[in-house]
Amino acid sequence: MQVTVVIGGASGIGAATAHTLTAAGHRVVVADLPGTGADVDVDVTDEASVEALFERAVADHGSVTGVVNCAGVSTLARVVDHDAAEWRRVVDVCLTGSFLVLKHAGRRVADGASLVSLTSLNARQPGTGLAAYCASKAGLVSLTEVTALELAHRRIRVNAVAPGLVVTPLTAPAMDIDGIRDAYLENTPLGRSGEPTEIAAAIKFLLSDDAAWITGETLDINGGAHLQRYPDLVGLIEKAFA
Ligand SMILES: NC(=O)c1ccc[n+]([C@@H]2O[C@H](COP(=O)([O-])OP(=O)(O)OC[C@H]3O[C@@H](n4cnc5c(N)ncnc54)[C@H](O)[C@@H]3O)[C@@H](O)[C@H]2O)c1
Predict the structure, then answer these.
(1) How would CATH label the architecture of 3-166+195-225?
(2) How far apart are CA 4 and CA 41, in angstroms?
(3) At residue 184, what are phi and psi to the nearest 5 degrees?
């Protein structure tokens, strides 16, 4: 039996992943912020809470064989205008939170487990206004590689997926602004946004024995958007509200 902890599993890509894995026969523990209706509360910025999550999952289920970390937040500000506290808020969830999850997952999961983090197209493609998010997600690619090296002796695989635009509560507000959705689609060769289930399918693969020889990898899932350029978000927003 695969026992998989899905963090940030109450919404968007995480919720689709929890659903896909349950349908595939995993025993899934959904963890998310308090008040989100998850099975277990966790705040990835709080080390004691992350440690307690894995202690409890192992105590409840005997062992944990998979972890998916979908917790993420974003913000929009040019570097020269960026509030430092807002910068830290995004880096704290997206990068330091990912580190805390890999640290405590790495200590508690079974040998041979598979750990998957959610990075982004923005790890490789810069977007105006997205400095904190881009820097965090690029850092997470590197963190994935280092952790894969360090845990390979226990056959623990450490990978990431990097989605392009998927409409979820994280991205939906921007889609209502004139020109933004079109700019994303123009820069996506396959001409559409992704579905949460399409990201979940790749995560399911990385958790499975079919991916037994894949570690330290970041898988782009973006309709080819990494081949083109990222929309000028700040420019489009300034134009829409001029
Ligand atoms: N939607 C996209 O287009 C897209 C593209 C690339 C990458 N991603 C990444 O995919 C992941 C999931 O995003 P989504 O689009 O499903 O967003 P979402 O807002 O629907 O889900 C994010 C989840 O993270 C949880 N979360 C936030 N802060 C947390 C914290 N401190 N501790 C624990 N949980 C926390 C939220 O409660 C929420 O359930 C994120 O890491 C995001 O950066 C999303």
Answers:
(1) 3-Layer(aba) Sandwich (3.40)
(2) 15
(3) -65, -45
Catalytic residue among 133, 134, 157, 162: 133
Q: How many CB atoms lie within 10 A of CB 175?
A: 12
Tokens of 93: 């969830």
Q: What is the pLDDT of residues 198-229, one digit of tens each?
A: 999 999 999 999 999 999 999 999 999 999 99
36 lines ligand 1 (CB under 6 A): yes
Look up the pTM and report it. 0.98
Number of H helices, E strands in the chain: 9, 7
Annotated domain spans of the chain? 3-166+195-225
Please say if 184 is a catalytic residue. no
Burial of 52 from C-beta contacts in 10 A (0-12 / 13-18 / 19+):
middle
Under 8 Å CB-to-CB from 165, ≥6 apart: which residues? Answer: 121, 171, 184, 188, 193, 194, 222, 225
